[in-house]
TrEMBL record:
SUPFAM superfamilies (UniProt xref): Chelatase
Top EC class of this enzyme: lyase
Subcellular location per the Swiss-Prot or TrEMBL entry: Cytoplasm
Main location group: cytoplasm
Pfam families, A to Z: Ferrochelatase
Gene: hemH
Claim: Cytoplasm is one of the keywords in the record: yes
NCBIfam families: hemH (TIGR00109)
Gene3D superfamilies named among the record's database cross-references: 3.40.50.1400
The UniProt record lists the keyword Lyase: yes
This protein's name: Ferrochelatase
Keywords associated with the record: Cytoplasm, Heme biosynthesis, Iron, Lyase, Metal-binding, Porphyrin biosynthesis
Phylogenetic lineage: Bacteria, Pseudomonadati, Bacteroidota, Cytophagia, Cytophagales
The protein's role, per its UniProt record: Catalyzes the ferrous insertion into protoporphyrin IX.
Amino acid sequence: MENNSARIGILLVNLGTPDSTSVSDVRKYLREFLMDGRVIDIPFLSRWFLVNCIIAPFRAPKSAKEYEKLWTDRGSPLLFHTKDLKEKLEEELDQNRYQVEIAMRYQSPSIENGLKKLQVAKVEKIIVLPLFPQYASATNGSVIQKVIEVAKDWQVLPSLNFVSQFMDNRLFIEAWSNIAREKLEKERYDAYLFSYHGLPERQIYKASCDGFCKLNEFCCGKLTEENRFCYRAQCYHTTRLIAKNLDLDPSKVYTSFQSRLGKDPWVQPYTEDLVKELAQKGHNKVLAFSPAFVADCLETTIEVGEEYKENFEALGGKQWDLVPSLNSHPTWVDCVKDLVIKNS
Ligand SMILES: C=CC1=C(C)c2cc3[nH]c(cc4nc(cc5[nH]c(cc1n2)c(C)c5CCC(=O)O)C(CCC(=O)O)=C4C)c(C)c3C=C
Ligand SMILES: [Fe+2]
Ligand SMILES: [Fe+2]
């Protein structure tokens, strides 16, 4: 049989979202998510107590209200944008060669389900694409581990190909630039804020197994062979690539980290501090980017698009615009196609 007629399975995996905005569904989601030892990386019993007795009970009602603001007729944006991405990708690929499935690391549709469909289709190869541009153990690492766990007992194991990061893909940078241009053509901004999902500092140190990353300029200021999996360095690198592609004035470009959970130190600078700094410096018009996410979600639409905007305006800022996420933008679909072809 000719090898190039083999069917290749593609599994697009995003983080996951609650099934509904009910407090019980949000609690269920938070429990599954935060009980992942790569997300809250402390010993099992301490994690169990923290998640089940503190975070989930207290956070679920508050988060459910936030999800209500985010929810649409089609449900959670994170999920329906992933479905749209799948459909548009299928239109771009030879359907005799590729089968595309989607999954969420937590809740539904599950990774088990997505992999089962590809197993039944008897694909020869599976390309797993965690939909997180910058590598973190809590996200890409967790997806890869889960896929390995699910597939490990299969009698027939197809070849498995994991895309561990894609933050420097030319089309990824171009997709963000194309979406941002729609804002930049209409408005002149005083500052550009690139806000990434944060991580506990501890997780950055652990990922830098040779101790190279000290969370300083020497590591995170430049992406090299030595630190190519440093999440913070990858975030700064993403900012530089998008800013350069858009020809933004470097003195107006800022990078920060949002969504801190708990009391441990997370990577800095924190977005909430930078919002204050920008307002205090008298920057009236800010354009915010969220390039750690490829779809609109709670962390972009609500946290960056509404909460930070309110904080900025309360401190005297005049205009705060958010660049919408990649969702199923044609250049993003081209990027995913490019990643598929390169890994086929
Ligand atoms: C960009 C990738 C992400 C990283 C890295 C990440 C790490 C991380 N997250 C938490 C805790 C929470 N994250 C929450 C929501 C959330 N996180 C990501 C992505 C990353 N997380 C996304 C896409 C979303 C939104 C999902 C949606 O349904 O829209 C939440 C839940 C929301 C809330 O209650 O505020 C929590 C909690 C930790 C602890 C962590 C790293 C260790
Ligand atoms: Fe998160
Ligand atoms: Fe670093």
